[in-house]
Amino acid sequence: MNQPDDNHLIQQVLDGNTGAYSLIVDRYKDLVYTVVIKIIRNREEAEEAAQDTFLKAFHALPSFKREAKFTTWLFRIAYNTAISRTRKKQLTTTAIDDKMIENYSTDEIKENIGQLNEEEQSRMLQIAIKTLASDEQLLINLFYHNHQSIEEIASITGLSDTNVKVKLHRIRKKLYMQMQSNMQPMLS
Amino acid sequence: MKSDNHIEDLNDKLLFDLIGNLPLEKAPEGFNAGIMQQIYSGVEPFEYTPEYRRQMLWAYIAIGVTVLLAVFMLFAQWPFLKISFLSTPEQLRDLLNASLGIFDGFSKVLSFVKSSSSVFIIFIALTLLLIFERLFRKGISSDRSFTF
Q: What sign has the CA pseudo-torsion B6, B8, B10, B12?
């Protein structure tokens, strides 16, 4: 059975069918919860922030311009709600050795990862992701998991397009560096 | 140029596959119900339809024009435009009498109120009503009262 699309559900809510919002919440609750927990890192507070996000979105629904994707708009609310709860002004850049990252080639580690089975690959990746800063985890989650474009991520986080690209570029390399270091005992 | 290279690097199939297959964080049980409960106890969103906006625009224009006309009729004293609005002595006397009658009426009511305990009773009644209203609203929902 075809699921009604976001715009159809939104129109139903605006026409007075409040119950239709329940379908929207159900559709995006895990994605929103994942976004906020990357920033807040506390389950209880993340739950409150995620609920707050959906309530704010509900009340702001009449002002939602359907030119942008609903998820981008919703994630921007989630991001701002989570950031204001942590009293962080903006995404912070983690101190990393730029030179080391720029000179690092990912080709070799990609080959090594390719030799592992899927379960091991996933485990290595999860361990590596945990070493990243919360803002870095959020960016890779939005890009590689939620398939948000650079422009959409920039709109959600308030960063410039170029800044998002540079950050993602660095985070990707950091991720591979971390995976390589985790794989050393297995390779030797 | 550098950012173009960055975006080429970013389109990394391995990472898309690996991260795409990672499980999402699960929202806790009862998450949806909690939100809907709060929504049902609050105000529903209202969309200002184009028709509503158009009607409101006309209403504002009508109010604006009325105010302008009133100001114009009261204060226009240009030599080339003579509006005889309340300009005869009889008309002005009638207006003055009516106004004085209203003021006199108010004055009588106030003096009656002052000379009795009515003011005290009205204030007590209002205070009790406001307290009762606040407690009553608190019992229904967490919304703030309009009166406080």
A: negative
Q: What letters, b where the CB count within 10 A reaches 16 and e where it falls short, cover B27-64?
A: beeebbebbbebbeeeeebebeeeeeeeeeeeeeeeee
- Cβ within 8 Å of A, B 48-67: 48
Instruction: Read off the pLDDT band of A51 (50, 70, 90).
Output: very high
A109: amino acid identity, one letter: I
Structure tokens at A116: 């592992």
> Mutation test of the interface with chain A: which of B31, B142, B143, choosing the one with the most A Cβ atoms within 10 A?
B31
**Looking at chain A, which residue has its C-alpha nearest residue B4?**
A165
Which pair of tokens denotes residue A18? 């409040």
State ipTM: 0.73
- State residue B144's pLDDT score: 46
Domain boundaries, chain A: 6-86, 98-187
Write down the pTM of the prediction.
0.60
- Could you please state the CATH topology (level 3) that the domain comprising A6-86 is classified under: Rna Polymerase Sigma Factor; Chain: A (1.10.1740)
Q: Average pLDDT of chain A?
A: 84
C-alpha distance from A88 to closest chain B C-alpha (Å): 22
The answer to whether residue B10 sits within a structural domain is yes
- Which residues of chain A have a CB within 8 Å of the CB of B44? 16, 18
Is the separation of the CB atoms in B22 and A137 below 8 Å? no
* Residue B143 banded pLDDT, cuts 50, 70, 90: very low
